[in-house]
Each structure stands twice: as structure tokens, then as C-alpha cells.
Amino acid sequence: MKRWLQLAAAAVWVCTRAGLADEAPAPDAATRFRAFCAELAGLGDGMTIAGKDGWLFLRNEIRHLGAGRFWGEEAARVSRAAKPELADPFDAIVDFHGQLERLGIRLIVLPVPAKAVVYPEQLPDSPVPVGEDGLPSRLDMVHQEFYAALHDCGVTVLDLLPALMQGRRDPAKPVFCRQDSHWSGQACVLAARQLADRIRKLDWYEGVPKTPFATTEEAVTVVGDLLAGVADAAVRTETLTLRRVGDRPIEPDRDSPVLLMGDSHCLVFHAGGDMLAQGAGLADQLAAELGFAVDLLGVRGSGARPARIALYRRASQPGYIAKKRVVIWCFAAREFTEADGWGKVPVVR
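The chain above was modelled as a monomer; its predicted structure follows.
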């Protein structure tokens, strides 16, 4: 890779102009990594980028990591939205939060970090070293800025990256699939625990009837969706350890006060079939941690606009939305630039 150093120098100049270059070394590593990803995404074609040790990465996720700031005036420049007016995720998220708040519902935004931010050393020719603690530097400076801006507008964002970085210390339970574009079953457990910690503090939680759910660990062999983009992969399967919840798949509860909505990260390890397994996805882990089943609205596509349109349609059912107290909006962080569009969508008529 010949040009990423030049791009990194340009990125450092941009950060100097923005007043960022005087910060700690981590942001400098982040700008170098961003330039590297911008270069890597443009090399070759196809959906998959083959990394080291059998790790596979989604090309448009790497492109997202190389895009830089993706909201405000920069949104239309870096977004793949169908129309410029649908490019900015910021206003769409703040508007969705405001609508739910007026209905008495708390929104928790749960962006799933990119695999390459958690395992950057597995990218081909990666410039990111692993420190003495076994972890790389935090590389999502742009995302941290975005989440802070949302927080200033009252939006709750669960930044899962610190938990995933700690979770990667156990090589037997990686927090992302090596050969699939989704997070792992272990990441679903970590996310559910953090979400449950927040929900259990809400005043209505104690009044909800609880059911204990037994959990068991099981090793499963899966075929990842990224293998379709690699003709000469030496290994065509991977084995994951899943925490299964209950003795049979847990059915989502339309009457639950908690709604989990978003993209296929809400469905993987839950819906079976192309979603790899049943009984071990985020909805299942939430049931185990909260003591009751949650409602589920997952789409096999973009979690940005289609998921909100699906909620709008479901909310037309009499009495449905009045039962909700928390909406967890879970989607891949790459959607900030790679979605077909954001824009505002009404929750109810």
C-alpha cells in the first residue's frame, strides 16, 4: 500500500486546522487509521476484504471508517444516501428521540462498532500496533465526537466499544465473527448486560412480572456471509461459543415495554437460517438479563430508515405504542454513511 502515508499526512493537516492535533497520541493514531482505511477501501472490488489469520472484513465498513466526519455540512459529501437531503444522520436521530420522548418513551441508540475498530491489527498491512496491554488504541475519534453531539441534544447513546475492547481479551470468545459481517454471540451478551443495567434503573422496571431464563453455553459451527466474496478462502466455516437462553426459542412479546429495533444485528443468532442460529441473539440475551421477553422489530437491510418505517406501520395498531417505555435502536455504525438514506420518519400518524 503506497498512498496511505500521504493520505495520513493530509488527515493530520486537517486535524491540525481543526485544533485536534494537540490532543493525546490516540487521536493521531485515529487519523492515520482513517487515512489507511480510505486507501484500503479503494483497492480492489467486491464486498469482502481478506485480512490476516482468516479474518474477513466488509468493504463498505472500511469505507465508512475512512470517510471522516459524516454529519452536518460533510454529510452529503461522504454519504451514499440516494438524495442529499437524506444524508445527515444527526437530525434524523435527534428527531426520532424527540418524537419518542413526547410519547413518554426513552430512546437508547446502540450503534454496533465496526469490526475493524476492535480488531484493526487483523487488516492487511495494518498500521495499528497492539499495545502492551494486548489492545490497540481507540480509533473511533469521529464517532466519539458524533455521540457527544447527540448527548448534548439529550439523546442517549450506548457506546459499546469499551466493553468490546475488554471482551476481545478472551481469544476463545471473540466479539466479532471472523468470517461474517456481524458481531458475535459474546458481543450480544455484553450488549444485553449494559442495556439491562440502564433499564433496571428506570422506575417502571420493578413493576414488570419477571421470569427466570436458564442459559447454557454451546459451540456452533457457522458459515459467514463474507465468505461469498472470497473465492480461495482456506477455511469455509468458523466455530463460535453461544449462550443459549431458555429451552426453546423465546418469542418476541408485542406487549413488552421494551422494543428492540434495527438491522440484522437484532436478528443474528436469534432468527436462525441466514442469521446463523436461534436462541442466542440480542433479544434473547435481553430477556435473560431483564427477566422478561422484549418486543422485536428487525429488518434484513438498513436499520436507518427502513426500521423506522416498519415501526411507523406497526405503531398504527391500536394501543401498541402506548405499551412501550424503552426503544433500543440497534444498527451497524457503518450505516451513518452507507445507508440509502436517513431523513425524518414519523413514529405515529
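The two ends are 52 Å apart (CA to CA).
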